[in-house]
Write a structure and sequence with these properties.
39% of the residues lie in helices and 12% in strands. By secondary structure, the protein is of the alpha/beta class. The protein has a single domain (7-214), classed as Uracil-DNA Glycosylase, subunit E, CATH 3.40.470. The strands form two sheets. It has a five-stranded mixed beta sheet, with helices on both faces. A two-stranded antiparallel sheet has the order 4-5. β4 and β5 form a beta hairpin.
Length: 217
Amino acid sequence: MDDGDADKFVPDSRDLRRLKAAASNCRGCGLYREANQTVFGNGKKAATLMLVGEQPGDQEDNAGKPFVGPAGKLLQRALDAADIDRSEAYVTNAVKHFKFVRAERGTRRIHKKPGRGEIDACRPWLVAEIDAVEPDVVVCLGATAAQSLIARDFRVTAHRGERHHLMPELGVHCDPFVFATVHPSSILRGARDERERAFADLVTDLRAAMVSCQSPR
């Protein structure tokens, strides 16, 4: 039986190594049953920039690391174009287990968007990561991350690139600026003749986030 959310599994610690170890045993929602493993965030502990995606994909679920598949490669290109060193950032997802459906034929696992209950259940891990890293800026990659951290009805298309704050009810101890932009996977799924412009817009959003990292508060 699932426990409804991850609260009881999150230790009273802001040490990322302890958090990651504890997350490997999380049963806060049912996604752990089919996924290979928990995919916790990784990166620099005191990073000024945190990048938050939706959930791990097939390759991330196999590797145990976020953003190592096709979307991760495109994100790396965008970070390079924006002169952002990924090793200096912290990268994670709103949901830590891969949600998927199996293809009718073969063994391929097809991404399925996490539901509101799964996003809410996993949020205590994301809050703990933000408290542990204390970033100056959080970039939400896609609607799932933005709706988990900024507002439940947040629309990236209407408010991308704008500066926001975390929802007060999250109880996060720091107060980073929060930006939202598209998830790299949406660019990969887009029409071929639109991808170049969509990629350039992502790079612009990432550069704007870095300017906030460097600006006095």
